Amino acid sequence: MPFYAVFCSFAGYLTLNMKKCLFLFGLFVIGGGLVSCTRTDVNKKLLKQVESCVEVYPDSAMRLINLIEYPEHLHGKERADYALLMAQTLDKNYLDSLQSDSLIKIAVDYYKSNNDFLKAGRAYYYYGKVMVAEDKLSEAMQAYLEALDLLKKTNEYKLQGLVFEHIGYLNSVQGVYDFSIDNYQKSIHYYELAGDSIGMVFGCRNIARGYLAKQHNDSARWYVNKGLALLPDTTNQIRVSLLQLLGLIAKEEKQYSQAIDHIVAAIKLNKNVKNESRYYLSLGRIYMDIGEFALAEECFMHCICTNDIIISSGAYSYLCLLKKEERDYQQALCYKEKSDSILNIVSNDKLRSQLLTLQKKYETDKLVMENRQVRLEKANQTYFYSFLVLLVIGLSIYFIKLYRKKNLRNIEALKRNEKIIEGVYLQDYRVRTVGKAGA
Question: Which pTM was predicted?
């Protein structure tokens, strides 16, 4: 009996503690679920806030997106949104060196598989920019063309203008100026549809650069003046590059005084230290043309410490030419070696061919797809009309058979009626005959 009491007491104790454990476990599960849901809701809210301010306040967007905890735990749409917004935020904050091709590829794959044409096009655009940063120009061109194919199904005109602008850049760096000018003209068209006058100014500047490279100075000047006319704000920094272009056009036409005035005005208006070396390089070249070697050397010395390897290499190359003019061959050789060590000049013919081949292949594939679609639509129309004809024929045959069947039934009924009438007449005749015989 005492043993039984102890056993019951122990069992009651276990039951009570088991209930407590289950209660605590339930609280833990519910609490964990609430924390998880709360974190998910917070992340969604942060992503929406980033999306709303990234274009206008990119620094605020950067602070907000960094508040997202454990982004690697995001899934589905939230993960794709995070990848796209991170790429967009880094781009707007000029931190392209921190971009990740694997991250933006997450957004590309998700949005494309879910037929979100706008976000898929935007993701391809940023993927193209990442490829340019990695010097993978063929992949960049393919990404931009994919972006255009998706964005043409939307009304996002500004983004389409940006994509055409970047395609134009890829063609221009390969010296395919006719293609690049066409791309830039399309970018102006889409910027105009978007009501983006600054984008149109950039397009005019880019076209002017293309015409200047082709030595079509009148066309280049026309687009520069069009850009200036679209830019009433005289303090806007794009005005600096337009003034530089006017200086380069004047230099090509040997109007050196005007050229110097334009470049000096550009340098005075410029507020971007990174671009300063580019304008000094242009000014130094003008001074070299008029034999002002001391002033030219001073301008080139402004350029040799820049982080832009093309400009620094160009500055050393011009210093080499300058010292040759001064017959200081030892110093000229020194500058030549420095120029070659900074920039190894490689022929771009192969890469240019790849880009043109890719564009032609894309246009060919697009034409094939369009022809296939037209043939498919025609085949569908043929099948539809064939079905209608067969349906009409089938219905006609059915109603004809039905009509014939009905007529046959009527004829048979008439024959039966005639037989009945004949039988009645025959019976009546027999009755009358028998009556007459009896009489």
Answer: 0.68
